[in-house]
């Protein structure tokens, strides 16, 4: 069991919690330090598919947190981590709302975040980061995810179901167990685009299957089989 370190100084973790973003499911339980614990059918489905297996290689796009590292490695898996939204902010102007259609920016961003061999991962925890990508960058990221995830691997992504929102909550997130997430809000962030079931099916049209869970919080938790 191990948490893989960085080839370029960005991958891996220091053991400190890093800000992340997550759309959360229905049941809410107060937790310590202002965090909330919420059940997640999508998370339960994701871990259900790899239950009983060991030695898998997983990718977390929410940035490294000690709790997530410990949880994944205690299951007997390797974990890589990328702080997707922080790299997006550093790669673009302001909150990442500009320049996302620039081919040079797209190539640079992919090299910074998803520069891995083909079929390297058995699963990816995408969380809600795809909502903050403009169409050109989003298409390129999804295509790269399909390359780095082995056929039959699973991805978990969250999307807000209300397509009229101008801003959505920003969260730090930690895996508490196979069906519960601990989240802590850090303000709000403007999404680049919002999705319905049909647009998500089109987005993952290359996938073997796409399964939706709509929560009481008006969020879609999506489990994608590559």
Q: Any idea what the shape is? A: globular
**Under the CATH scheme, which architecture would be assigned?**
3-Layer(aba) Sandwich
Distance between the termini: 24 Å
Report the count of strand segments: 10
Question: What is the topology, as strand order, of the major beta sheet?
Answer: 4-3-5-6-10-9
The largest pleated sheet is described as: 6 strands, mixed
In a few lines, what is going on in this structure?
By secondary structure, the protein is α/β, with parallel strands linked by helices.
Key attributes of the depicted protein:
single chain; 226 residues; alpha/beta; Rossmann fold; six-stranded mixed β-sheet; 26% helix; globular
Could you please describe the fold and organization of this structure?
- The chain is globular.
- The two termini are about 25 Å apart.
- About 25% of the residues lie in helices and about 30% in strands.
- The protein has one domain: Vaccinia Virus protein VP39 (Rossmann fold), CATH 3.40.50.
- It has six helices and ten strands, in the order E-E-H-E-H-E-H-H-E-H-E-E-E-H-E-E.
- By secondary structure, it is α/β, with parallel strands linked by helices.
- Strand 3, helix 2 and strand 4 form a beta-alpha-beta unit.
- The strands form two sheets. The chain has a six-stranded mixed sheet, sandwiched between helices. Strands 1-2-8-7 form a four-stranded antiparallel sheet.
Q: What is the topology?
A:
Blueprint: E1 28-30, E2 36-39, H1 41-49, E3 57-60, H2 66-74, E4 78-81, H3 84-91, H4 103-113, E5 121-127, H5 135-148, E6 149-160, E7 168-177, E8 180-189, H6 197-203, E9 209-214, E10 219-225
Helix pairs in contact: 3-4
